[in-house]
Amino acid sequence: MNRLGRSSRQAIRTSLLLLAIIGWHAQARAGQLTLTWSDSSTSELGFSVERSTGTTGAFAEVTMLGPGATSYVDPSVADATTYCYRVRAFDATAYSDYSNAACGATAPTVGLAVLKIGAGTGTVISAPSGVICGTSCSGTYPSGTAVTLTATPATGSTFTGWSGGGCTGTGSCTVTLTSTTTVTATFDAIQSVSLTVSSAGTGSGTVSSTPAGILCGTTCSASYPYATAVTLTAVVPAGSTFTGWSGACTGTGTCPVTLTSPTTVTATFALKPVTLMVRVRGLGTVTSTPAGINCGTTSCTASYLYGTAVTLTANSNDERYTFTGWSGGGCAGAGSCTVTLSSATRVRATFARHKRQ
Fold first, then answer.
1. Contact of 282 with 265, CB cutoff 8 Å
2. Which fold, 109-189?
3. Selection from 156, 157, 185 nearest residue 170 by Cα
4. Which of 4, 101, 108, 205 gives a 20 to 30 Å CA spacing to 192?
5. Chain centroid, CA 4 distance in Å
6. How far apart are CA 223 and CA 221, in angstroms?
7. Cα-flanking dihedrals φ and ψ of residue 9, to 5°?
8. pLDDT value at position 18?
Protein backbone atom coordinates (compact mmCIF):
# COMPACT_ATOMS: atom_id res chain seq x y z
CA MET A 1 0.00 0.00 0.00
CA ASN A 2 1.07 3.64 -0.45
CA ARG A 3 2.71 5.30 2.51
CA LEU A 4 0.33 7.33 4.60
CA GLY A 5 1.01 10.24 6.86
CA ARG A 6 0.92 9.50 10.58
CA SER A 7 -2.27 11.43 11.11
CA SER A 8 -3.98 9.59 8.20
CA ARG A 9 -2.98 6.10 9.47
CA GLN A 10 -4.24 6.96 12.94
CA ALA A 11 -7.59 8.04 11.54
CA ILE A 12 -7.88 4.83 9.49
CA ARG A 13 -6.84 2.66 12.42
CA THR A 14 -9.49 4.26 14.58
CA SER A 15 -12.04 3.64 11.84
CA LEU A 16 -10.97 0.02 11.30
CA LEU A 17 -11.22 -0.91 14.95
CA LEU A 18 -14.92 -1.26 14.24
CA LEU A 19 -14.11 -4.09 11.78
CA ALA A 20 -12.48 -6.44 14.24
CA ILE A 21 -12.92 -10.12 13.22
CA ILE A 22 -13.59 -12.41 16.13
CA GLY A 23 -14.26 -16.05 16.85
CA TRP A 24 -13.47 -17.59 13.48
CA HIS A 25 -12.19 -21.12 12.87
CA ALA A 26 -11.32 -23.59 10.13
CA GLN A 27 -13.35 -26.78 9.71
CA ALA A 28 -12.31 -29.76 7.59
CA ARG A 29 -14.97 -31.35 5.39
CA ALA A 30 -14.50 -33.90 2.60
CA GLY A 31 -11.47 -32.51 0.77
CA GLN A 32 -12.05 -28.82 1.51
CA LEU A 33 -11.73 -26.40 4.40
CA THR A 34 -14.50 -24.04 5.47
CA LEU A 35 -13.66 -20.83 7.34
CA THR A 36 -16.18 -18.80 9.32
CA TRP A 37 -15.84 -15.56 11.25
CA SER A 38 -17.90 -12.74 12.74
CA ASP A 39 -17.94 -9.15 11.48
CA SER A 40 -19.20 -6.39 13.79
CA SER A 41 -19.11 -3.56 11.23
CA THR A 42 -20.73 -2.62 7.92
CA SER A 43 -18.14 -0.07 6.75
CA GLU A 44 -15.53 -2.40 5.18
CA LEU A 45 -15.05 -2.78 1.45
CA GLY A 46 -14.05 -6.43 1.79
CA PHE A 47 -11.80 -9.03 3.36
CA SER A 48 -8.46 -10.56 2.48
CA VAL A 49 -8.01 -14.25 3.34
CA GLU A 50 -4.47 -15.54 3.71
CA ARG A 51 -3.28 -19.13 4.04
CA SER A 52 -0.14 -20.96 5.07
CA THR A 53 0.73 -24.62 4.60
CA GLY A 54 1.44 -26.09 8.02
CA THR A 55 1.72 -24.11 11.23
CA THR A 56 5.11 -22.60 10.36
CA GLY A 57 4.64 -21.81 6.64
CA ALA A 58 4.51 -18.32 5.17
CA PHE A 59 1.09 -16.72 4.73
CA ALA A 60 -0.06 -15.69 1.26
CA GLU A 61 -3.35 -14.27 0.09
CA VAL A 62 -5.67 -16.90 -1.44
CA THR A 63 -8.76 -14.79 -2.07
CA MET A 64 -10.46 -11.44 -1.55
CA LEU A 65 -14.12 -11.31 -0.54
CA GLY A 66 -16.69 -8.56 -0.67
CA PRO A 67 -18.20 -6.63 2.25
CA GLY A 68 -20.33 -8.53 4.72
CA ALA A 69 -18.65 -11.89 4.03
CA THR A 70 -18.39 -14.18 7.05
CA SER A 71 -17.19 -17.44 5.49
CA TYR A 72 -14.98 -18.90 2.79
CA VAL A 73 -14.73 -22.45 1.42
CA ASP A 74 -11.20 -23.26 0.26
CA PRO A 75 -11.39 -26.02 -2.38
CA SER A 76 -7.72 -25.85 -3.43
CA VAL A 77 -6.36 -28.03 -0.64
CA ALA A 78 -4.49 -31.32 -0.64
CA ASP A 79 -5.59 -34.39 1.30
CA ALA A 80 -4.14 -35.09 4.75
CA THR A 81 -2.58 -31.61 5.00
CA THR A 82 -2.77 -28.92 7.71
CA TYR A 83 -3.49 -25.33 6.67
CA CYS A 84 -3.63 -22.16 8.75
CA TYR A 85 -5.68 -19.06 7.88
CA ARG A 86 -5.95 -15.45 8.93
CA VAL A 87 -8.31 -12.70 7.79
CA ARG A 88 -8.19 -8.92 7.74
CA ALA A 89 -10.65 -6.31 6.57
CA PHE A 90 -9.89 -3.37 4.31
CA ASP A 91 -11.46 -0.10 3.23
CA ALA A 92 -10.39 2.38 0.54
CA THR A 93 -7.22 3.41 2.37
CA ALA A 94 -5.96 0.71 4.72
CA TYR A 95 -6.20 -2.80 6.18
CA SER A 96 -7.28 -3.69 9.68
CA ASP A 97 -5.14 -5.79 11.98
CA TYR A 98 -5.12 -9.53 11.27
CA SER A 99 -7.50 -11.81 13.04
CA ASN A 100 -6.14 -14.64 15.11
CA ALA A 101 -4.75 -17.54 13.03
CA ALA A 102 -6.76 -20.77 12.99
CA CYS A 103 -5.65 -24.11 11.57
CA GLY A 104 -7.46 -27.10 10.16
CA ALA A 105 -6.43 -30.38 8.54
CA THR A 106 -7.99 -32.06 5.53
CA ALA A 107 -8.96 -35.68 5.93
CA PRO A 108 -6.64 -38.44 4.72
CA THR A 109 -7.89 -40.38 1.69
CA VAL A 110 -8.59 -44.11 1.46
CA GLY A 111 -8.75 -46.24 -1.69
CA LEU A 112 -11.73 -48.44 -2.62
CA ALA A 113 -11.31 -51.05 -5.36
CA VAL A 114 -13.99 -53.26 -6.91
CA LEU A 115 -13.06 -56.63 -8.42
CA LYS A 116 -15.53 -58.28 -10.79
CA ILE A 117 -15.42 -62.06 -11.19
CA GLY A 118 -17.55 -64.81 -12.72
CA ALA A 119 -18.63 -65.84 -16.20
CA GLY A 120 -21.22 -63.05 -16.42
CA THR A 121 -20.93 -59.31 -16.91
CA GLY A 122 -22.35 -56.22 -15.25
CA THR A 123 -21.59 -52.80 -13.80
CA VAL A 124 -20.92 -51.49 -10.30
CA ILE A 125 -21.45 -47.82 -9.42
CA SER A 126 -20.86 -45.94 -6.18
CA ALA A 127 -22.55 -43.20 -4.18
CA PRO A 128 -20.83 -40.82 -3.63
CA SER A 129 -19.43 -41.09 -7.16
CA GLY A 130 -15.96 -42.39 -7.87
CA VAL A 131 -16.50 -45.99 -8.94
CA ILE A 132 -18.15 -46.82 -12.26
CA CYS A 133 -16.93 -50.32 -12.92
CA GLY A 134 -16.94 -51.02 -16.20
CA THR A 135 -15.00 -47.81 -16.72
CA SER A 136 -13.24 -47.17 -13.41
CA CYS A 137 -13.07 -49.95 -10.85
CA SER A 138 -11.44 -47.91 -8.08
CA GLY A 139 -11.87 -44.59 -6.35
CA THR A 140 -10.39 -42.48 -3.55
CA TYR A 141 -12.48 -41.05 -0.70
CA PRO A 142 -11.81 -39.17 2.57
CA SER A 143 -11.33 -41.52 5.50
CA GLY A 144 -14.61 -42.31 7.22
CA THR A 145 -16.73 -41.92 4.07
CA ALA A 146 -19.63 -44.36 3.76
CA VAL A 147 -19.69 -45.54 0.14
CA THR A 148 -22.67 -47.50 -1.23
CA LEU A 149 -22.03 -49.83 -4.17
CA THR A 150 -24.83 -51.00 -6.47
CA ALA A 151 -24.43 -53.89 -8.93
CA THR A 152 -26.44 -54.17 -12.16
CA PRO A 153 -26.11 -57.34 -14.26
CA ALA A 154 -25.94 -57.09 -18.04
CA THR A 155 -28.42 -58.86 -20.28
CA GLY A 156 -27.74 -62.58 -20.10
CA SER A 157 -26.10 -62.35 -16.68
CA THR A 158 -27.17 -62.40 -13.06
CA PHE A 159 -25.55 -60.80 -10.01
CA THR A 160 -24.90 -63.51 -7.44
CA GLY A 161 -23.41 -61.48 -4.59
CA TRP A 162 -20.70 -59.46 -2.82
CA SER A 163 -17.67 -60.52 -0.83
CA GLY A 164 -15.05 -58.46 0.99
CA GLY A 165 -15.46 -55.13 2.74
CA GLY A 166 -18.00 -56.66 5.09
CA CYS A 167 -20.55 -57.01 2.26
CA THR A 168 -22.69 -60.06 1.48
CA GLY A 169 -25.93 -60.80 -0.35
CA THR A 170 -27.21 -59.33 -3.60
CA GLY A 171 -28.54 -55.97 -2.43
CA SER A 172 -26.50 -52.78 -2.27
CA CYS A 173 -23.16 -52.86 -0.41
CA THR A 174 -22.22 -50.05 2.00
CA VAL A 175 -18.57 -49.75 3.09
CA THR A 176 -17.33 -47.21 5.65
CA LEU A 177 -13.74 -46.55 4.59
CA THR A 178 -11.09 -46.44 7.28
CA SER A 179 -8.40 -48.26 5.28
CA THR A 180 -7.80 -49.39 1.71
CA THR A 181 -10.62 -51.81 0.86
CA THR A 182 -11.36 -54.29 -1.91
CA VAL A 183 -14.88 -55.54 -2.63
CA THR A 184 -15.62 -58.40 -5.02
CA ALA A 185 -18.78 -58.50 -7.16
CA THR A 186 -19.67 -61.84 -8.76
CA PHE A 187 -21.67 -61.98 -12.00
CA ASP A 188 -22.66 -65.34 -13.50
CA ALA A 189 -23.92 -66.06 -16.99
CA ILE A 190 -27.51 -67.28 -17.16
CA GLN A 191 -27.19 -70.84 -18.46
CA SER A 192 -30.84 -71.78 -18.88
CA VAL A 193 -34.31 -70.26 -18.51
CA SER A 194 -37.53 -72.05 -17.61
CA LEU A 195 -40.76 -71.88 -19.62
CA THR A 196 -44.00 -73.03 -17.98
CA VAL A 197 -47.35 -73.49 -19.72
CA SER A 198 -50.68 -73.84 -17.94
CA SER A 199 -54.19 -74.48 -19.25
CA ALA A 200 -57.39 -72.71 -18.25
CA GLY A 201 -61.04 -72.66 -19.25
CA THR A 202 -63.84 -75.20 -19.62
CA GLY A 203 -62.48 -76.76 -22.80
CA SER A 204 -59.55 -79.03 -23.48
CA GLY A 205 -56.48 -78.86 -25.68
CA THR A 206 -52.72 -79.30 -25.81
CA VAL A 207 -49.77 -76.96 -26.30
CA SER A 208 -46.58 -77.98 -28.12
CA SER A 209 -43.32 -76.10 -28.60
CA THR A 210 -40.68 -75.53 -31.25
CA PRO A 211 -37.94 -76.39 -30.39
CA ALA A 212 -39.32 -79.42 -28.57
CA GLY A 213 -39.65 -79.54 -24.80
CA ILE A 214 -43.25 -78.54 -24.08
CA LEU A 215 -46.11 -80.94 -24.78
CA CYS A 216 -48.75 -79.82 -22.33
CA GLY A 217 -51.00 -82.04 -21.30
CA THR A 218 -47.98 -84.22 -20.58
CA THR A 219 -44.95 -81.95 -20.10
CA CYS A 220 -45.91 -78.39 -19.14
CA SER A 221 -42.48 -77.04 -18.13
CA ALA A 222 -39.04 -77.13 -19.76
CA SER A 223 -35.70 -75.29 -19.63
CA TYR A 224 -33.95 -73.81 -22.66
CA PRO A 225 -30.60 -72.05 -23.18
CA TYR A 226 -30.69 -68.33 -22.43
CA ALA A 227 -32.28 -66.19 -25.20
CA THR A 228 -33.77 -69.21 -27.03
CA ALA A 229 -36.74 -68.25 -29.24
CA VAL A 230 -39.54 -70.73 -28.49
CA THR A 231 -42.82 -70.87 -30.43
CA LEU A 232 -45.88 -72.36 -28.72
CA THR A 233 -48.80 -73.78 -30.68
CA ALA A 234 -52.24 -74.65 -29.31
CA VAL A 235 -53.88 -77.84 -30.61
CA VAL A 236 -57.65 -78.00 -30.18
CA PRO A 237 -59.69 -81.24 -30.19
CA ALA A 238 -63.26 -81.54 -31.41
CA GLY A 239 -65.75 -79.89 -29.12
CA SER A 240 -63.37 -77.17 -27.86
CA THR A 241 -62.10 -73.86 -29.15
CA PHE A 242 -58.89 -71.97 -28.32
CA THR A 243 -59.76 -68.53 -26.95
CA GLY A 244 -56.25 -67.14 -26.50
CA TRP A 245 -52.95 -66.77 -24.66
CA SER A 246 -52.18 -64.77 -21.55
CA GLY A 247 -48.90 -64.05 -19.80
CA ALA A 248 -46.02 -63.59 -22.25
CA CYS A 249 -48.36 -63.77 -25.29
CA THR A 250 -51.76 -62.59 -26.44
CA GLY A 251 -54.10 -63.43 -29.31
CA THR A 252 -55.08 -66.80 -30.74
CA GLY A 253 -52.20 -67.45 -33.13
CA THR A 254 -48.89 -69.03 -32.25
CA CYS A 255 -47.03 -67.67 -29.20
CA PRO A 256 -43.37 -66.65 -29.81
CA VAL A 257 -41.28 -66.20 -26.64
CA THR A 258 -37.60 -65.24 -26.40
CA LEU A 259 -36.45 -66.56 -23.03
CA THR A 260 -34.34 -64.12 -21.04
CA SER A 261 -36.04 -64.77 -17.68
CA PRO A 262 -38.37 -67.46 -16.25
CA THR A 263 -41.59 -67.20 -18.25
CA THR A 264 -45.16 -68.42 -17.75
CA VAL A 265 -47.80 -68.66 -20.48
CA THR A 266 -51.46 -69.64 -20.05
CA ALA A 267 -53.54 -71.19 -22.84
CA THR A 268 -57.32 -70.92 -22.44
CA PHE A 269 -59.69 -73.41 -24.07
CA ALA A 270 -63.49 -73.22 -24.08
CA LEU A 271 -66.14 -75.81 -24.94
CA LYS A 272 -68.03 -75.19 -28.17
CA PRO A 273 -71.78 -74.59 -28.02
CA VAL A 274 -73.93 -77.25 -29.68
CA THR A 275 -77.51 -76.73 -30.88
CA LEU A 276 -80.38 -79.07 -29.97
CA MET A 277 -83.65 -78.71 -31.91
CA VAL A 278 -86.91 -80.47 -31.06
CA ARG A 279 -89.83 -80.77 -33.43
CA VAL A 280 -93.29 -81.80 -32.19
CA ARG A 281 -95.74 -83.63 -34.36
CA GLY A 282 -99.26 -83.54 -32.95
CA LEU A 283 -100.39 -81.83 -29.76
CA GLY A 284 -97.95 -82.11 -26.86
CA THR A 285 -95.00 -80.51 -25.10
CA VAL A 286 -91.35 -81.41 -24.66
CA THR A 287 -89.17 -80.09 -21.79
CA SER A 288 -85.47 -80.58 -21.07
CA THR A 289 -83.09 -81.16 -18.18
CA PRO A 290 -80.97 -79.06 -18.00
CA ALA A 291 -83.45 -76.35 -18.91
CA GLY A 292 -83.56 -74.76 -22.33
CA ILE A 293 -86.14 -76.70 -24.31
CA ASN A 294 -89.80 -76.07 -23.63
CA CYS A 295 -91.29 -76.99 -26.93
CA GLY A 296 -94.95 -76.64 -27.51
CA THR A 297 -95.12 -73.47 -25.37
CA THR A 298 -91.96 -71.40 -25.97
CA SER A 299 -88.60 -72.59 -27.33
CA CYS A 300 -87.93 -75.64 -29.46
CA THR A 301 -84.21 -74.82 -29.90
CA ALA A 302 -81.44 -74.33 -27.31
CA SER A 303 -77.60 -74.31 -27.18
CA TYR A 304 -75.57 -76.40 -24.72
CA LEU A 305 -71.86 -76.91 -24.20
CA TYR A 306 -70.25 -79.72 -26.14
CA GLY A 307 -70.69 -83.05 -24.38
CA THR A 308 -73.70 -82.00 -22.31
CA ALA A 309 -76.21 -84.81 -21.68
CA VAL A 310 -79.71 -83.40 -22.19
CA THR A 311 -82.76 -85.40 -21.13
CA LEU A 312 -86.03 -84.71 -22.98
CA THR A 313 -89.45 -85.49 -21.54
CA ALA A 314 -92.67 -85.55 -23.58
CA ASN A 315 -96.12 -84.74 -22.20
CA SER A 316 -99.46 -84.76 -23.94
CA ASN A 317 -101.44 -81.60 -23.31
CA ASP A 318 -104.62 -82.85 -25.00
CA GLU A 319 -106.54 -85.96 -23.97
CA ARG A 320 -107.19 -86.71 -27.60
CA TYR A 321 -103.43 -87.26 -28.20
CA THR A 322 -101.01 -89.82 -26.89
CA PHE A 323 -97.20 -89.58 -27.08
CA THR A 324 -96.09 -92.44 -29.31
CA GLY A 325 -92.32 -92.00 -29.40
CA TRP A 326 -89.05 -90.27 -30.42
CA SER A 327 -86.99 -90.25 -33.55
CA GLY A 328 -83.58 -88.70 -34.25
CA GLY A 329 -80.70 -88.03 -31.85
CA GLY A 330 -80.38 -91.74 -31.13
CA CYS A 331 -83.68 -91.73 -29.24
CA ALA A 332 -86.52 -94.22 -29.57
CA GLY A 333 -89.49 -95.50 -27.55
CA ALA A 334 -91.99 -93.54 -25.50
CA GLY A 335 -89.91 -92.94 -22.39
CA SER A 336 -87.56 -90.03 -21.77
CA CYS A 337 -84.87 -89.27 -24.36
CA THR A 338 -81.23 -88.52 -23.34
CA VAL A 339 -78.96 -86.94 -25.95
CA THR A 340 -75.23 -86.36 -25.40
CA LEU A 341 -74.44 -83.41 -27.63
CA SER A 342 -71.36 -83.63 -29.83
CA SER A 343 -72.84 -81.93 -32.87
CA ALA A 344 -76.02 -80.11 -33.85
CA THR A 345 -78.88 -82.53 -33.20
CA ARG A 346 -82.57 -82.78 -34.15
CA VAL A 347 -85.11 -84.83 -32.26
CA ARG A 348 -88.78 -85.39 -33.20
CA ALA A 349 -91.52 -86.12 -30.68
CA THR A 350 -94.70 -87.65 -32.14
CA PHE A 351 -98.09 -87.37 -30.55
CA ALA A 352 -100.87 -89.44 -32.23
CA ARG A 353 -104.57 -88.68 -32.07
CA HIS A 354 -106.83 -91.41 -30.73
CA LYS A 355 -109.02 -93.11 -33.28
CA ARG A 356 -112.74 -92.60 -32.80
CA GLN A 357 -114.62 -95.62 -31.55
1. no
2. Immunoglobulin-like (2.60.40)
3. 185
4. 205
5. 74
6. 7
7. -60, -40
8. 34
